[in-house]
Amino acid sequence: MAKKAKKVKEKKEKKPGYFKEVKMELKKVTFPSFKEIMKYTFATIVFCGFLVGFFILLNLLLSVVKGMF
Predict the structure, then answer these.
(1) Which of 2, 16, 36, 62 could form an S-S bond across to 20 if both were Cys, CB 3.0 to 4.6 Å?
(2) Nearest-angstrom CA–CA distance, 63 and 55
(3) Does residue 13 lie within any of the structural domains?
(4) Helix-, strand-, coil-residue percentages of the chain, each rounded to 5
(5) Residue span of the structural domain in which 45 resides
(6) How far is CA 36 from the centre of its chain?
(7) Is there a domain that residue 64 lies in?
(8) Structural domain tally of the chain?
(9) In-domain check, residue 37
């Protein structure tokens, strides 16, 4: 009998609500500083520029090769 009473008590304990859990998780989050955001933005733009340049050169090279045949 004691086991049944214990199980009933455990089931009745409420879990925190959805929004309370979200709030608790957001307290654990560390957001980047403005300096970090600018650094990563600059790195992304440079990397995209590198890829654009690479594909432009590749396109020109393939156009030359296609023109040969």
Answers:
(1) 16
(2) 12
(3) no
(4) 85, 0, 15
(5) 32-69
(6) 15
(7) yes
(8) 1
(9) yes
